[in-house]
Amino acid sequence: MFNKIFKKYFFLIGIILFLIILSKSNLREIYENIKNINSPYLIIAALLIFPMLINKTWCWHYILKQQGIKYRFRDLFSMYCSGLYIGLLTPARMGEITRALYLKKDGHSMGKSLAGIILDRLSDFAFLLFFVFFGSLFFVTVFQKQILIFVLGTTAAVILFLIFLKIGLVSWFLNNLFRILVLKKYQKSWKVNFQDFINNLKIYKLKHYLIIFLITAFSWLFYYFITYLLAKGLELNVSILYLAIAVTVAGFITLLPISISGIGTRDAALLGLFAPFAISIEKILAFSALILSVSLFTVLIGLICWLIKPLKL
Questions:
Q1: Is residue 167 part of a domain?
Q2: Which residue ranges of the chain lie beneath pLDDT 70?
Q3: How far apart are CA 54 and CA 163, in angstroms?
Q4: Which DSSP string do the residues of the chain spell out, in sequence order?
Q5: 141 contacts: CB under 8 Å, gap ≥ 6
Q6: What is the rounded distance in angstroms from the CA atom of residue 228 to the CA atom of residue 234?
Q7: Domain annotation covers residue 3
């Protein structure tokens, strides 16, 4: 009984955490911080969202091209943004699976459709691990043991993955993972799609992974610059490198399926990461709210794309 209730309402954990944090802060001061933000920084940050989304679509376009899947770029942009609209409204952004449904609707198998999307998400994950791993080395003196433990843990995770890759256990691992995630009534059809999924992953060579990684890195540079502009507008005195590491770690935490759009989890993460600096709780929460506003702006773009190119779910 408890498990059923938890599974149904686990996303409320973030909301509860958010309300607890708000109860310990000055709401008026948070509002004043947002109200008094330097407008040019906010406007430029908002405008940079478009090239960031275009670049992310370009990455997906390149991935699909290797599979022989061809679409007009504007159609892919619409599908990508529609996926963000659904994804940002669901725990752990699982709604981005919508992109696979668009491809399936056009006659591509689910296994083939998922391969490109999972590779796209893995490229984000790989870049973020890479960035946090090397960037955190500059800040060992700030968090000392905490940073060292995180770096060592990341190293161990990467090494284990490489070992799995070397001895061919990735297929076994993914098969068992999807067996857990996929509903029982769909598992029979998934077995057929899973082999198709693995076959499509084998298409990609080292040069493809490197190009995908570079395009992904370029996309994240836009995001880091957007958050830097928001921080500057709030007069948040943190170096751009540390700020980038902080929003990256916070981004990892928001992937936990205990919140919607990272509400609560992002706030808690940023409060902890900015703890060593003399920054008020209200200013940190105002910064977190502005990051959420960036997500909501992408949701608005996604909603428009969804209305233009709807999909029966």
A1: yes
A2: 1-11, 88-96, 134-201, 255-259, 313
A3: 35
A4: -HHHHHHHHTTHHHHHHHHHHHHTS-HHHHHHHHHTS-HHHHHHHHHTHHHHHHHHHHHHHHHHHHTT----HHHHHHHHHHHHHHHTTSGGGGGGGHHHHHHHHTT--HHHHHHHHHHHHHHHHHHHHHHHHHHHGGGHHHHTHHHHHHHHHHHHHHHHHHHHHHTT-HHHHHHHHHHHHS-GGGHHHHHHHHHHHHHHHTT--HHHHHHHHHHHHHHHHHHHHHHHHHHHHTT----HHHHHHHHHHHHHHHTSTTSSTTTTHHHHHHHHHTTTS---HHHHHHHHHHHHHHHHHHHHHHHHHHHHS----
A5: none
A6: 10
A7: no
User: Among candidates 114, 131, 154, which has minimal Cα distance to 243?
Assistant: 131
Q: Is residue 7 part of a domain?
A: no
Total domains in the chain come to: 1
Go through 65-96 and write b for each residue having 16 or more CB atoms within 10 A of its CB, e for each that does not.
ebbebebeeeebbbbbbbbbbbbbebbebebb
Look at the block and give the residue holding tokens 């770029």.
73
Structural domain containing residue 66:
33-308
Question: What is the C-alpha separation between 7 and 187, in angstroms, rounded?
Answer: 20
Token pair for 134: 């090397």
The span from the CA of 219 to the CA of 231, in Å, is: 19
- Tokens representing 182 are 């996929």
Which pLDDT value is given to residue 2? 43
Give domain status of residue 93, yes or no.
yes
Report whether 285 contacts 21 (CB < 8 A): yes
Nearest Cα neighbor of 64 from 53, 80, 52, 50 is 80
Task: Tell me the residue type at 83.
Answer: G
Whole-number Å distance between alpha carbons of 136 and 147? 7
Q: Angle at which helices 281-308 and 73-87 pack, to 10 degrees?
A: 130
Predicted confidence at residue 127, as pLDDT, reads 83
> Mind listing the pLDDT tens digit for each residue in 211-236?
888 998 888 899 999 999 999 888 88
